[in-house]
């Protein structure tokens, strides 16, 4: 955990916290970290969900299968973002999607009752943690809105451009690497992989983008 403090200070859950306060809050709320390797399952669909987590490093995918068995990736989460937030509900429910490590990653977990039930543990910093949690949940809703906005485009080129511009804004640069392979990006955009590859090539020919594998440059 000691090596993670610099990362934790840049995460919205601990916005405004000193290093000492971060350590104190994790200790009194009984937080713990766990590392996952690429493609390892973090949460399985419909499994009990007693914990929620904050991604510290790496990227994870939230996905589900349709009735044909095809995988549908509906969002990706990176450092600082919340996963398993449905655990914060007062009624116990299972997660409604699979959560998988897209890359090697590390996640900071908290048990629900240590956050929402003040009689479980005594922690002077709980109120500030909860306030920052609300901010994270609002950000999560905004990310889902962006996804709906992307897939609502009927034109494939517009879908791709919208997604790439959002990634550019997120990375604060015109040159960036996305967390998806071609197949994963096709699943995320809900399009055919071959059609996606053809359109990316056309966009490069038209001078809109350049790319190599999953690294892109907006022109």
Automatic annotation (TrEMBL):
Specify whether Transcription regulation is a keyword of the entry. Answer: yes
| GO MF annotation, one | DNA binding
- SMART domains linked: cNMP
Domain HTH crp-type, by residue range, is 154-219
Q: Name one GO biological process term.
A: regulation of DNA-templated transcription
Q: Which residues form a coiled coil?
A: none
**Which keywords accompany this UniProt record?**
Activator, DNA-binding, Transcription, Transcription regulation
Keyword Iron carried by entry: no
Enumerate the Gene3D superfamilies for this protein: Jelly Rolls
Ranges for domain Cyclic nucleotide-binding? 13-115
Question: Superkingdom, according to UniProt?
Answer: Bacteria
What protein is this chain from?
Crp/Fnr family transcriptional regulator
Naturally occurring in which organism (per UniProt): Niallia circulans (Bacillus circulans)
Taxonomy of the source species? Bacteria, Bacillati, Bacillota, Bacilli, Bacillales
């Amino acid at each position: 955990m000691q090596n993670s403090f610099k990362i934790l200070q840049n995460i919205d859950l601990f916005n405004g916290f000193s290093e000492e306060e971060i350590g104190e809050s994790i200790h009194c709320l009984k937080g713990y970290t766990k590392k996952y390797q690429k493609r390892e399952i973090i949460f399985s669909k419909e499994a009990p969900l007693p914990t929620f987590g904050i991604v510290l490093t790496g990227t994870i995918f939230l996905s589900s299968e349709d009735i044909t068995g095809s995988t549908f990736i509906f969002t990706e989460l990176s450092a600082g973002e919340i996963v398993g937030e449905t655990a914060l509900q007062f009624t116990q429910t299972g997660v409604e999607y699979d959560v998988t490590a897209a890359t090697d990653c590390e996640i900071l977990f908290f048990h629900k009752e240590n956050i929402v039930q003040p009689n479980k543990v005594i922690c002077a910093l709980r109120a500030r943690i909860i306030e920052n949690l609300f901010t994270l949940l609002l950000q999560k809703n905004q990310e889902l809105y962006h996804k709906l906005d992307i897939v609502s485009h009927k034109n494939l080129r517009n879908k791709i451009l919208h997604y790439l511009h959002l990634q550019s804004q997120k990375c604060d640069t015109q040159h960036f690497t996305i967390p998806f392979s071609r197949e994963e990006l096709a699943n995320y955009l809900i399009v055919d992989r071959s059609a996606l590859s053809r359109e990316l090539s056309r966009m490069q020919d038209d001078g809109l983008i350049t790319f190599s594998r999953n690294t892109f440059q907006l022109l």
